[in-house]
Automatic annotation (TrEMBL):
InterPro entries the UniProt entry points to: DUF5916 (IPR045670)
One Pfam family named in its UniProt record: DUF5916
UniProt entry keywords in alphabetical sequence: Signal
Lineage top rank: taxon: Bacteria
Signal peptide: 1-24
DUF5916 domain ranges (all copies): 260-335
Name by which UniProt lists this protein: Carbohydrate binding family 9 domain-containing protein
SUPFAM superfamilies: CBD9-like
Amino acid sequence: MLKKAATQTLLATCLSLMISAAYAQTDLIVPRAKTPPQLQDYVGRVPAEAGFVVRDFRQRTPGDGNPASLATTAYLSFDETHFYAVFVAKDDPKNVRARIAKREDFDGDDFVILELDTFHDKRRAFSFFVNPYGVQMDSKRIEGLELDKNFDTQWQSDGQLTDDGYVVRIAIPLKSLRFKNADVQTWGVTLGRVIARLSEESFWPHISKQVAGFVPQAATMQIPERLSAGRNAQVNPFVYLGNSRILNADVPTSPVWLQDNKVQAGLDAKWVIGDASAIDLTIKPDFSEVESDEPQIVVGKRYEVLFPEKRPFFLENAGFFHTPTPLFFSRRIAQPQAGLRITGRQDSWAYGGLLIDDHAAGEDASENAKAKIAMARVQNDLSHDLALGGLFTDRRLNQDHVRQRDTVAGIDGRFQLDDNWILQAQFARSQTDLDGKKLQGHLGYLEAKHQGKHLEYLAKYSDISQNFASSLAFLPRTDLKQLQQEAMYLWHLDAYTDLQRIGFIGNSTLSRDQTNQMQDWSADLGVLAEGSRDSWLEIFSRHGYEKYAGQDYRKQGWLVNTGTSWLSWLSVMTEFGAIDSINYTPAAGVTNLLGKGRSIDLTLTFKPHPQWRIEEKLLWNDLRNSQSGQSSQSNEATSVYRNLMWRTKLSYQHNRFLGVRLIADYHQLAANPRLSSLESGKQLNTDLQLSYLLSPGTSLIAGYGNRQENLALIGNPAYLQRTADLSLRTGRRAFIKLNYLYQL
């Protein structure tokens, strides 16, 4: 027994040393480039002074720690103005998946990755992605939060397919980065490659999924010189010219045509101080009127649905103001006239502030409503494993004779307990002053996350009082005590090529109000399988309970989620299922609220050519009742409503900068007036757009939009009447938008 125990101890020690060696960070010193590296210098050969050489990429998925399936070599260097990375990726060019696309639009492609932790705090990193044609995407990574893809900055990238794979060159201006003022720069660096058809991610150094946290596993890199971005200021003016004619049908008996000739000009400006801090100013900021929201199902939803921000001023550095529970949601700001933002870092401290003058800030978007908004955020990285932060928001609304002030102050923290466990916590207090009446509220949040090779687990607990001020937050529910849990156990099938992982999934939610009365619960149990070519299948059995309008409802159903990109020119994603659902919008006098709900979410993406792309998006849901709610004459299923949304998007990208796209959105809602208060109707929106996007901040966009509905204008004076066909054009719009970024 002693011999067996000693042997087990020895094996455990060896295994521990092997894992430690695999996760060990590799120090490197980046050389200065005598001349900026050029893409052609690495096609079929390697120049004499190529930079620091990186090889030995290791898989993160599917085989954690296994050597990469295909060879990749990267070369790093710098000069007084740029940081450079060149990737030479080996592959059969016929198997490389890549398209000529506009910026940040290469889903499903192969690509390479460069991540730089420029403050070496092991908490944040700039992320740069480039596909084989040089199409670029950038983001910010903050541990504990989702990847912030809204981040945009100026940098250069080139790519080219070769006889044995592809080559990518990245040149990042020092002006586009933030870093310490030091004689020697110490950064964290991660290099990666994604092979889409193999569903493979590989990195140098090895970034293991068995370790909770991405940035802490980066290699340590030194630049043995003092760096400076020099004078770093930007001015970004824009002008928007548009003409629109829209039918206001709020009162069907007296519709009014609204004609608008709009000329809007605005300005964004940035001044970087000391390479680590930035001041941003906006005057009449860009409203991003050229991009529509992606379709989402809102019919049959009890709580608010999140639509993401699109305005550039609020997208930049948005991740810095994120907290575990989102206490600042910028789409709450309706019509900003001017804004000021300050963000920066000093040693272990990060800080930021925001001031906004908002017009049309009332719930009815009245122009008589104006709000002054202030926000401040500070965070201190006490160690690599522990960070504490604070957030303060203040909103003062003035609407007619109503005065309201919402103030929120909170603290939050993140602690990495070990390689597998991460803990997060948040606590906030709020006060609402409404014409002399004061309401106070509280918010608490706890989160525990485990990341391992086989077991992934997440637990979240929220405690939000009914009077918590949410005028600037995204909190679909208050008066809440809620526990959410997600668990997944996986088996990795290294012996198989196409089937990579199988496992079990369990999700649960338990919600009570502040008096501890049960409000709802749900439990989903399922199985999953994941394979190569971005293929997956998940099947769930669903059960739940909900209290609504004083009644108790039991629910059960099922859900299937699956997708694949098995063919290089076609990808499919779909989620469909059925579950008992409540009719939240019943007609007057209807008491039977529970019905049978079904839903489909289907996305097809066709890529017949590197420059062409066709996307088809279908969203469908319905609700059926077994009785009418008014009588029991029939036991047959009765439709409450049927909701259909279909979007077709055709895109042609002439090169990385110039493209055209056509979108057709069709929406049909058929509601049973005996059971539902929803109004039936049909609508078709078409949108044609030509865009030239040279870089973030410099673009020219021209577009034309048209809206048709199943309406008719009858009589004199005219009134609206529903028809069977899309017979009336109720809106049209033509516009041109130009913005240009000046680097000072």
